[in-house]
Write a sequence for this structure.
């Protein structure tokens, strides 16, 4: 069964890079959903079950912290794992993340390898061997 | 401070954009096609790229050679955003400054380079110019 991953970032390039980085982890079949900001992400979540959310913090319309709060307030999404991906390495940002019960932060710059162990741990997955069947699948929006 | 920024930029471009800094070439051409900027009351930073460096960087970042000019612009903005985020918090030790949204400078010849601290990185014999104004 594919894993549904929602990637939230106002940069289209960063969304592509995150998708590629996740695909390189070789964790099996993945269906990707994308959103440009927190509000778009909530709209996606209204119609789709999402197993894992990657989100930026600084975004227009609705930022990552507000999105996380909304997810925590909803019974259906309060346990959805969230990984924050940010270039803001400030102590204040880390403290705000802690206050918002964000347990996983990936700081930019990152390498795809940095995402792999976190994903396996979060989703309780095993690494798949390289073969044709292990190519990730996804929906393009 | 400009040396810190140069080292940080080199590190970030290598880590996320797979660009490895080269030694300074004997013949230098300063043919910049793209300039991206982040500006606020404390910091004014500009990165200037040759067309080839910008294309290579974008292809490396996105993992494809099928790129558009919009991809290049988005990638350069992402790069300066990452560099600024790290530079302000670590090198300037400013935990409170809000990081502004980057923008492209269309008229590169209008940039008054003499009013900035400057540093150069080289990739495939082409320069990447770093301009910094603090305070």
């Amino acid at each position: 069964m594919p894993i549904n991953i929602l990637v939230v970032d106002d940069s289209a390039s960063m969304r592509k890079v995150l998708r590629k980085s996740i695909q390189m982890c070789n964790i099996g079949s993945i269906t990707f959903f994308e959103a440009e900001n927190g509000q778009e992400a909530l709209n996606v979540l209204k119609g789709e079950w999402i197993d894992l959310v990657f989100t930026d913090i600084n975004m227009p319309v609705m930022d990552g912290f507000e999105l996380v709060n909304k997810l925590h307030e909803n019974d259906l999404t309060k346990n959805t794992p969230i990984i924050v991906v940010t270039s803001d390495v400030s102590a204040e940002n880390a403290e705000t993340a802690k206050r918002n019960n964000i347990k996983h932060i990936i700081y930019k710059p990152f390498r795809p390898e940095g995402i792999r162990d976190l994903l396996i741990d979060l989703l309780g997955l095993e690494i798949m061997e390289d073969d044709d069947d292990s190519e990730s699948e996804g929906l393009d929006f | 401070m400009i040396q810190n920024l140069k080292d940080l930029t080199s590190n970030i471009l290598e880590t996320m954009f797979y660009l490895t800094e080269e030694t300074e070439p004997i013949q230098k051409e300063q043919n910049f096609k793209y300039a991206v900027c982040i500006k606020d009351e404390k910091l004014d930073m500009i990165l200037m790229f040759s067309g080839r460096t910008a294309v290579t960087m974008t292809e490396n970042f996105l993992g494809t050679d099928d790129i558009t000019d919009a991809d290049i612009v988005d990638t350069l903005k992402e790069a300066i955003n990452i560099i600024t985020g790290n530079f302000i918090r670590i090198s300037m030790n400013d935990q409170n400054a809000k990081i502004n949204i980057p923008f492209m400078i269309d008229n590169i010849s209008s940039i008054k380079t003499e009013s900035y601290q400057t540093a150069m990185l080289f990739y495939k014999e082409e320069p990447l110019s770093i301009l910094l104004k603090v305070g």
